[in-house]
Amino acid sequence: MPELPEVEVVRSGLIDHLVGRTIVMVEVLHPRPVRRHIAGPEDFAATLVGRTFTEPRRRGKYLWLPFADGDALLVHLGMSGQFRTAEPGLPDARNTRVRFTFDDGGHEVRFVDQRMFGGLALSVGGAELPPEIAHIALDPFDPAYDVEKVAKRIRSKRSGIKRLLLDQTVVSGIGNIYADEALWQARLHYDKPGESLSRAAAVGVLTAAREVMQDALTVGGTSFDALYVNVNGESGYFDRSLNAYGQEGMPCPRCGTPIRREAFMNRSSYRCPRCQRAPRRHSAAGIRSAGIV
What we know:
CATH topology of the largest domain: N-terminal domain of MutM-like DNA repair proteins
CATH superfamily of the largest domain: MutM-like, N-terminal
Number of helices: 7
Helix content: 25-40%
Shape: elongated
Oligomer: single chain
CATH class of the largest domain: Alpha Beta
Mean pLDDT: 90
Order of helices and strands: HEHEEEEEEEHHHHEEH
Distance between the termini: 44 Å
Radius of gyration: 22 Å
CATH architecture of the largest domain: Alpha-Beta Barrel
């Protein structure tokens, strides 16, 4: 699933193609991407005609396209959702699912999704913030984001730090790639409990996450294949700068130890076994024998 930098690249790329434009036609070429619209694809299309887009918005990994009337089009990119632009009449890109045509006769905007885990849904009253994602925490780029407050929350929890970074109700926008990169930068093992972190360590890993995502933004995000591209069909290049994620067997850029891949939450986690040592775990028996309980 695209993480904050990739979604932000899509959001910013859509600005020139959506703001101030009024929809005159919506063609749903496959019903699955609009499956959350209970009244069906035809009603979805008819409901959007005549609406005018304002500036696209984002919170973490979540994207929405506000309308001037106060509603919004909530977008879930899933694993392979993309927006592409094309002149009217040009052939669709493969796996195009929804096509938007505008009253100015200019470039169409097309939603493309190979695996169809993504989708589009009308959010009534959602222009400012769709109620469907109101529970999502602020991301590190939000003006109202308070790193000290998030660090304090992390330090109140027993879960491992990577689980907390991935918890979108704690801090949004960070996924597997940027969590591994931030943990490498902060020299933390993914399973180190949040409650065991010092204030400086908690703030440090959150700061590292913001920095690594900012670096990714400057090169268009991270692309490992054609499933993530911007609205012009271009890929991001941050995969060339990764220090840990996907680097199994490669020397750690800091100490030279081969990067290790380990199973984590039905996915993989990458770390340097020397720079990011596993936390000590005391068994209950060991604690009792030590006279602690």
